[in-house]
Structure formats: C-alpha cells, structure tokens
Design brief:
This protein is α/β, with parallel strands linked by helices and 100 residues long. Helix content is 32%, strand content 13%. The chain starts with 14 loop residues before the first helix and ends in a 6-residue tail after the last helix.
Length: 100
C-alpha cells in the first residue's frame, strides 16, 4: 500500500530480523510499522527494543483491538481492519508530514 504512493518500504517477517537490520543501519529507517501479535516479541516489546537503538524512530503499532492509551514507545496505533487511506494518514502523521 505504501509503495504505491511513493514510500520506500523494507519488509521483514520476524521481529529479530528487524532489530538486526536496525542495529546494522540505524539511520536507514524513518518509520517502523509493526503488528502487535508476532512471534517471540509483541509490537510493544519491539518498540521498546527499537528505542534502545534509536529513541527518536517513530513506531506505528497495528492491532486488532484499541488500547485504552497509547503504549510507551508507540507513536501511533492503527486498528485493523484499515484501508490504504488510513495507513497513509497514520504514516504521514507519525513522520510529521501531516497535521490534524
């Protein structure tokens, strides 16, 4: 969805692969979008580990249930199901490219 509107996207299927890539190239990413339900780490746990590497990297958490508050380390929450417009809007907001 994001590639179609001009974003350059790196996709990884395991949270540890993402952390390894981020450790190797900490300034190569402007935004992380992660699901909350993943093998070995939740999205919130991943966000906390990301903050140890690069504290200013925005993280969008994708989840099926809305949390009562935004968890620490999470810039924005995107509730499933969502459409392309919602994803683009949340990504732009997390990157500081859009105003509400």
């Amino acid at each position: 969805m994001l590639v179609r509107v001009g974003y350059r996207v790196t996709t990884l299927s395991h949270p540890q692969a993402g952390l390894t890539d981020l450790q190797r190239r900490p300034n190569a990413f402007d935004l992380v979008i992660t699901d909350n339900q993943m093998p070995t780490l939740s999205g919130v746990e991943l966000a906390n580990r990301i903050a140890e590497i690069r504290s200013n990297l925005p993280v969008v958490l994708v989840t099926g249930t809305a949390p009562s508050t935004t968890p620490p380390g999470i810039t924005a929450v995107l509730i499933k199901p969502f459409d392309t417009a919602q994803l683009i809007q949340v990504a732009a907001r997390a990157l500081g490219l859009a105003n509400d």
